[in-house]
Design brief:
This protein is mainly alpha-helical. It has three helices and no strands.
Length: 72
């Protein structure tokens, strides 16, 4: 499955950093027994990590936003 790139530059870096932070939040929440918070943070981490890895965001595509430097 191929996606058109619409995430790049600082936006991609921010999403990667957000994925790391949400992963830490999820792990801390799960170890302290807060399963709902852990699950939601984990899902957010997966989503942000997917965006950063594939350079594609479905919401950006739906809204016509392209943050790649060359406008691909």
């Amino acid at each position: 499955m191929a996606f058109d790139r619409n995430v790049g530059g600082i936006d991609r870096l921010g999403r990667a950093l957000l994925a790391v932070v949400l992963t830490v939040v999820a792990l801390r929440a799960l170890t302290s027994g807060r399963r709902t918070t852990g699950l939601l943070a984990g899902l957010g981490a997966v989503g942000a990590g997917f965006n950063a890895t594939t350079c594609f965001c479905g919401l950006n595509a739906a809204l016509g936003i392209d943050t790649t430097s060359d406008g691909e």
